[in-house]
Amino acid sequence: MKINAALVGVGASKFGRFLPDSQLALAATAFKAALDDCGLQREDIDGLSIHMGWPLGLDYDRVADGFGLNLRYVNQSWLHGRFVTNALQHAALAVSAGLANVVACVTAISFTRERDFLGGPGDAEGNREEGGTHGESPPYGLTSPAGGAALSMQRYLAVTGASSEKLAAVPMAIRAHAVLNPDSIMRTPLTLEDHQSSRMIVDPLRLFDCCLINDGAVVVLLTSMERARDLKQKPVRIAGMQGMRSGRDEFIFAPPGLGIGQQPVGPVRSRPVDVEVYGSAGVDRSVVRALYTYDAFSPLPLFVLERFGFCGGGEAIDFVQDGAIGPGGKLPLNTSGGLLSEAHIGGWNHIREMMRQIRGTAGPRQIPDAQVLQWATAWGDSVIMTAA
Amino acid sequence: MAQETASRKPRPRIGPDSEPFWAGCRRHELMLPFCKECGKPHLPPGPVCPHCFSGSLEWKKASGKGRISTWVVVHKAWFPAFADDIPYNVVQVELDEGPRLTANVVGTNALSVGQAVEVVFDDIDQDLTMPRFRLA
Predict the structure, then answer these.
(1) Residues A295 and A145 sit within 8 Å (Cβ to Cβ)
(2) Nearest to A127 among B5, B10, B43 (CB)
(3) What is the C-alpha radius of gyration for chain B, rounded to an integer number of angstroms?
(4) What is the count of structural domains for chain B?
(5) Yes or no, beta carbons of B14 and A259 under 8 Å apart
(6) Which chain B residues have a beta carbon less than 8 Å from that of A155?
(7) Long-range contacts of range A120-123, CB-CB < 8 Å, 24 or more positions apart?
(8) Could you read off the pLDDT of A340-381 as tens digits, one per residue?
(9) Are A147 and B75 within 8 A, CB to CB?
(10) Which domain holds residue B125?
């Protein structure tokens, strides 16, 4: 089956900490805005793809019931940030296969109200018998996804000889993008001194190596290319995609070969299996104008750069220095400010930004000639979006 | 009661596949499941060998020696019960037999990748003994 899907409408609520609104209220604002954006009506929506359900987000049945939708396709993934790509890909697959005409990807999150769930006593998933998916081991006091990113970064530091000071280049660059975005929660520049003087969360990760915890919603609408051409906005085409990688070579927050969890130790390098997305999209990596990734923790962009071959194994820490991933850099990364500095909407704020960039409506953040953009994660999945 | 729950550290969830591991700890023996066909041990314990998919496994005592493959020091009290321990370390130890085990190193947070360690057993109560490590 050939992928025939485009992102046609996008809307968002405001982003902030301790917003008084329910997830459903945030979603309603974003849903209405997405419909207005592209000119579709509520009655046109016959599919729903949900990234994060209750308690952080909304379950599909609550959205359908609350908004009076009549659906013939529903997808909902496990309650983890990593399934952002999964939710987007399933929407594209459903549209391409004719399971739905228009799929709404609805992500509405109240992290602040449900923060006990994030690594605390309410986090049942971390207590999985064999350990949590980010390496959590609550009996030993490792209880949060941050712990998994820290395990990977500590070994990366030992292997590469890098330092926390060099890692600071990642959150500093992403903050520099955020400063240009009026929706960002964090809008003052981040200095090296700010980073180094911020409190240690889980050594080697400091406060500013960890993403925001906030509330907000983004809704993205997908339909076929044929239908997309009749709508208000310039379509953003799903040009190619590859799924999440999993197996004994994989740890969610480490490139294969680093040796975290049960990963065999080997040379970290981009392998053919890591970059199938470029063949799927029919583009070369060299034409990717900007890279978007799930920057829950500052090491994750490093692992993406190495997995997808933007640089060699162990080289990303040098690649990101001197503004290379910041505004005007050779490979801008997370140009809206990402999870680290714009807001944590499960990555959908990044998808929204990719749509704005390809439409040419990113204002002061606009990348010249933004025809090909890539979403890619540390766990190996990816979507390449292009101007139609 | 609520206060007691808040102050209690989480206990490992022990299921049919991992029970022999924890039973070994109660005897102060670090046990690993080895495949009778390909000979490789694995963690976390599963019902089949993840290397060759054989269902023929046997539990054997491991050396208890290994090296720190990575480590962290926790500074945030995600769980109230760990608040008094901060800062404390969590390590992944690559056992000499190959699989990696997550635990703590007792006595110091001055750790580095590659350091040699050996297992020690911490008797929590009559039902639970947790393996930890000390610098070798």
Answers:
(1) no
(2) B10
(3) 16
(4) 1
(5) no
(6) 69-70, 113
(7) A120/B78, A120/B79, A121/B5, A121/B6, A121/B10, A121/B79, A121/B80
(8) 999 999 999 999 999 999 999 999 999 999 999 999 999 999
(9) no
(10) 10-135
Chain B contact set for A260 (CB, 8 A): 69-70, 92
Check CB contact of B92 with chain A, cutoff 8 Å.
yes
In a domain, B16, yes or no: yes
Question: Can you tell me which residue has the tokens 């997370």?
Answer: A334
DSSP state of A312: -
SS3 A97: coil
CB pairs < 8 Å spanning A and B: 112
Residues whose CB is less than 8 angstroms from the CB of residue A308 and which lie 6 or more positions away in sequence, other chains included: A270, A274, A275, A285, A291, A374, A376, A382
Q: Do A154 and B113 touch (CB under 8 A)?
A: yes
| pLDDT tens digits, A284-335 | 999 999 999 999 999 999 999 999 999 999 999 999 999 999 999 999 999 9
Q: Is the dihedral of CA A150, A155, A159, A163 positive or negative?
A: positive
pTM score, whole prediction: 0.96
User: Domains of chain A (ranges plus CATH)?
Assistant: 6-115+213-236 (3.40.47.10), 238-387 (3.40.47.10)
In a domain, B2, yes or no: no
H or E stretch covering A104: strand A102-110
**Residue B93 covered by a domain:** yes
Classify residue B37 by burial, with Cβ atoms within 10 Å: 0-12, 13-18, 19+.
middle
- Residue B65 inside a domain? The answer is yes
Distance CA B103, CA A139 (A): 9
ipTM of this model? 0.95
User: What does the alpha-carbon distance between residue A109 and residue A24 come to, in Å, rounded to a whole number?
Assistant: 9
How far apart (Å, rounded) are the C-alpha atoms in residues A366 and B110?
Answer: 46
- One-letter amino acid for residue A241 of the chain: M
> Cα(A196)–Cα(A163) distance, rounded to whole angstroms?
11
Indicate the angle between helix axes A84-96 and A348-359, nearest 10 degrees. 60
Q: Which among A115, A123, A154, A208 is the top mutation candidate for probing chain B, defined by the most B β-carbons within 10 Å of its own β-carbon?
A: A154
Which structure tokens are listed for A369?
């000639």
